[in-house]
Amino acid sequence: MFFKRSLLLLTTVTVVFVTGAGADDIRLPDMGSPADAILTKNVESQIGHSIMRDIRRSGMVVEDPQITEYINEIGHRIAAQTNDGEQDFTFFVVDDPHVNAFALPGGYIGVHTGLVEASRSEDELAGVLAHEIAHVTQRHIARAVHANSRQSILTTALMLGAMVLGAAGGSGDVVQGAMAVAQGTAAQQQINFTRQNEYEADRIGIGALADAGFDPHGMASFFEVMARLQPGTPDTRIPDFLRTHPVTTARIAEARNRASEYERRQSNDTTNYGIARVRMIVDRHETDEQALSYFEQRDYRNQTDIEKYGRAVAYQRAGRHPEANAIFEELAEKDPKVIAYRIGLGQSQLALEQYDEVQRTFDRALELFPRNVPIVIHYGEILLQLGKANEAHAMLLDLMNNVPPTPEQVRLIARAANEAGDEAESYYYMSEYRLMTGDLIGGIGFLRRALSIPELQEIQRIRFEARIDFIREYMTEDQLKQLQRSRPVSVAAQNGSS
């Protein structure tokens, strides 16, 4: 149902936007792509934001702050080489074992856990991100709409919806069904245009890869991985033009030739690449025993630090905290600059009820890495467990005033404010959480709840009322009618157990 909703959303937004102007109203911009006349960057951003909300609501996004921080660090490093500063990017990981990645309108780039695990090096992973970033900077979705502007708008929208479905991991049957509706006399033209986009994304991406300090051969190297995986996948029944990343020997050769124009780099995998990868590996195992077995295959003395880290995380998952703590202590002492080792150590100390040591570990980590998102989020969770909600609230608020938060992080600060006794701010944060997940009525419901607090400060009342007025401007008539019938939402059930 999630993917069908995404397709419907993309179709509706595209149709409403394009048909909202008559032929005489469409003007080419003085500068930039003629695609702007069909699909502006602002509308692209709105479409991407809407689809991203659905993806988050589906529960598919990996919320692990260490993994999220890593993928954004690599993504923004590459994007800085191709971006003119006008395009924002958001990188996220999808919990899906299939080897895939995709770009949504507006700079949202998703990577499947299966792809990260399948990558053999950080350069290969960076190559995939560079390719997806190029799809965004070259505005391939807007150009696809422009290329089909003489066709039925509905047909164009459905084709784009099918592309997004395939990229995000929709089933082959759903993708085929969507494309079957969209197919017509211009099907071959769309196939060729999509393939052309893929080659252009390769060319632009390889340049960005080299400029960002990665091995420019990383993209072609991963294409070879995908080429070997494709024959045995369930999606082989989908025609080549429906694959999100069709790989041929010609395309691999072209990528190799393009990469040879740049200096070959021998870049080593960062520790954070290994950490993100093993955290996914631990999580994908169905049982604690399977996760432990995976990391206990080799003798501990012969394992790399990353393998030892994975072993410690598996011990944590299985509740074997003394063993996990011993490994984290060893790793943190050996390499104190690795944030993940300090976080793991603090978590194991908490499980062993070494409360003073926990705070010393995290306080020292914050001294070395102030406002580091994974440290602050994990420390905030621990402070709440220790009954120190005021400290958690202040620390999280400082972070979120400086770093754009995810919905789950907003939900965490709502919990901290609630446990700290700041009921009004807790309702306000929960309102923002609802808005970030697309629930406008629920967002206003929490703001109304905040306004009903007798001891509410006047400055808060003004802020909350202004926020309600702002939200109402974006609501449909049906939503406004539903709002009239709705009652204030209780935060206790929604937030108390978060």
Distance between the termini: 26 Å
Q: How many structural units, i.e. domains?
A: 3
Q: Count of helical segments? A: 25
Uncertain stretches: 1-32, 171-191, 235-242, 489-493
Q: Categorize the overall geometry.
A: flat
- Helix and strand sequence: HHHEEEHHHHHHHHHHHHHHHHHHHHHH
Please give the largest β-sheet. Answer: 3 strands, mixed
Q: Summarize the amount of helix as a percent range.
A: 55-70%
Assign the structural class, choosing from mainly alpha, mainly beta, alpha/beta, alpha+beta, or little secondary structure.
Answer: mainly alpha
Give the overall average pLDDT: 81
Radius of gyration, taken over Cα atoms and rounded to an integer in Å: 24 Å
Instruction: Report strand %.
Output: under 5%
Count all strands and give the number. 3
How is the largest sheet built, in terms of strand order? 1-3-2
List the topology elements.
Blueprint: H1 2-19, H2 41-57, H3 65-79, E1 90-94, E2 101-104, E3 108-112, H4 113-118, H5 122-137, H6 140-147, H7 153-168, H8 172-182, H9 187-211, H10 218-229, H11 249-259, H12 271-284, H13 288-295, H14 305-317, H15 321-334, H16 339-351, H17 355-368, H18 373-385, H19 389-400, H20 407-419, H21 423-436, H22 440-451, H23 458-472, H24 477-485, H25 491-495
Parallel strand pairs: 1-3
Antiparallel strand pairs: 2-3
Helix pairs in contact: 1-2, 1-7, 3-5, 3-12, 5-9, 5-10, 7-8, 9-11, 10-11, 12-14, 13-14, 14-15, 15-16, 16-17, 16-18, 18-19, 18-20, 19-20, 20-21, 21-22, 22-23, 22-24
